[in-house]
UniProtKB/TrEMBL annotation:
GO molecular function: initiator methionyl aminopeptidase activity; metal ion binding; metalloaminopeptidase activity
One of the Pfam families matching this protein, by short name: Peptidase_M24
Gene: LOC105123714
Gene Ontology BP terms: proteolysis
Keyword Transit peptide: yes
UniProt biased composition (Low complexity): 15-29
Protein family membership: Belongs to the peptidase M24A family. Methionine aminopeptidase type 1 subfamily.
Keyword check for Nucleotide-binding: no
Cofactors, names only: Co(2+); Zn(2+); Mn(2+); Fe(2+)
Protein name: Methionine aminopeptidase
Role, per record: Cotranslationally removes the N-terminal methionine from nascent proteins. The N-terminal methionine is often cleaved when the second residue in the primary sequence is small and uncharged (Met-Ala-, Cys, Gly, Pro, Ser, Thr, or Val).
Tree of life domain: Eukaryota
GO cellular component: chloroplast
């Protein structure tokens, strides 16, 4: 389950500068350069003048076509849009009452308050016993997510998915971590189409061609396991399939560079590089986080280019959970203070794993 807390404070991502002013000046320069080869001189040049004029014309002929090609390419890239079938915007459905949890199941300490808990400043680094418990919690979360994904089909409501997830978790003697966290009313997050994250399950039926992210976190024996995946519902078009595929690839590429001593900022760089190849935006507001006995802690994992300091440590656990969009990465949040959508209504996809840092790499604890 991603977290948005203090994400606005990190330094802005590094960007390739491409201001409109420089673009227009480059464009006008290339046009004048193109025309500079055609005028005819009224007086034939002589001596050094002739040699200079000849070199100037040759230089113009060599450079101008390249400049013009680059200008055309830039214009095409700016005009290029990924076509996808516009779906009716999400509408709030009926949210049913929260489901009960048996008294005998241990519950996380944040229950009883509707206030979001502070992010712990401590990195969660585990001993051998803690790693065993983390593995158990993450394995359960992964199994629940796989079974929840099997429910995804047209006409099923996200409320039905929530009920099934809730039952699977409590049947295993665990607590559904989102339930009651900062007042969240359900046991799982279900984010459909343009919903970036933190969608509250309700009475809306899934439609043929939807995509849905299911975000499962369980609290087992005092440890949280956190994972999510975007599923396809029925006949999904190619543009959305590609968005989902590339988002999962971004997660895999981010995990691949993790190991003891690696810089956290490399994750955002690697994810951004891959997303940009396909023209997708990487949402900056929502981040990965440390996870273990505490639901959300440092380190905060930025998925965009950044200069955030810090290195990974063996035995540490945290999530990586990039959100990619076809259009705008800006967002709006419904009055429920949770459901967050892309500002322009374009689709978004997300994948998440909890990983354990090892001396030589990273173990994916939520891989099923």
């Amino acid at each position: 389950m991603g977290f948005a807390g203090s994400v606005s404070s990190p330094p802005p991502p590094l960007q390739l500068s491409s201001s409109s002013s420089s673009s227009s000046s480059s464009s006008s320069w290339s046009k004048s350069a193109l025309f500079s080869v055609t005028p005819v001189s009224f007086s034939p040049p002589t001596g050094k003048n002739a040699q200079y004029r000849k070199r100037l014309v040759v230089l113009s002929k060599r450079v101008s076509p390249l400049e013009e090609a680059m200008r055309i390419r830039r214009e095409r890239e700016l005009q290029k849009t990924v076509k996808f079938r516009k779906r009716p915007p999400l509408r709030r459905g009926r949210v049913s009452p929260r489901l009960p949890v048996p008294d005998g199941i241990p519950k996380p300490p944040y229950l009883g308050s509707n206030e979001l808990p502070d992010i712990s400043s401590e990195h969660q680094i585990h001993d051998s016993e803690g790693i065993v418990k983390m593995r158990a919690a993450c394995e359960l979360a992964a199994r629940v997510l796989v079974n929840a994904g099997k429910l995804v089909r047209p006409s099923v409501t996200t409320n039905e998915i929530d009920k099934a997830v809730h039952q699977m978790i409590i049947a295993a003697g665990a607590y559904p971590s989102p339930l009651g966290y900062g007042g969240f009313p359900k046991s799982v997050c279900t984010s459909v189409n343009e919903c970036m994250c933190h969608g509250i399950p309700d009475s809306r039926q899934l439609q043929d061609g939807d995509i849905i992210n299911i975000d499962v976190t369980v609290y087992l024996n005092g440890y949280h396991g956190d994972t999510s995946k975007t599923f396809l519902c029925g006949n999904v078009n190619d543009a959305l399939k590609r968005l989902v595929k590339v988002t999962e690839e971004c997660l895999e590429r981010g995990i691949a560079l993790c190991k003891d001593g690696a810089s956290f900022k490399k994750i955002g760089k690697r994810i951004s590089e891959h997303a940009e190849k396909y023209g997708y935006g990487v949402v900056e507001r929502f981040v990965g986080h440390g996870v273990g006995t505490v639901f959300h802690s440092e380190p905060l994992i930025l998925h965009n280019r950044n200069d955030r300091p810090g290195i990974m440590v063996e035995g540490e656990t945290f999530t990586i959970e990039p959100i990619l969009t076809i259009g705008s990465t800006e967002c709006i949040t419904w009055p429920d203070n949770w459901t967050t959508l892309t500002a322009d209504g374009s689709p978004a996809a997300q994948f998440e794993h909890t990983i354990l840092i090892t001396r030589t790499g990273a173990e994916i604890l939520t891989k099923c």
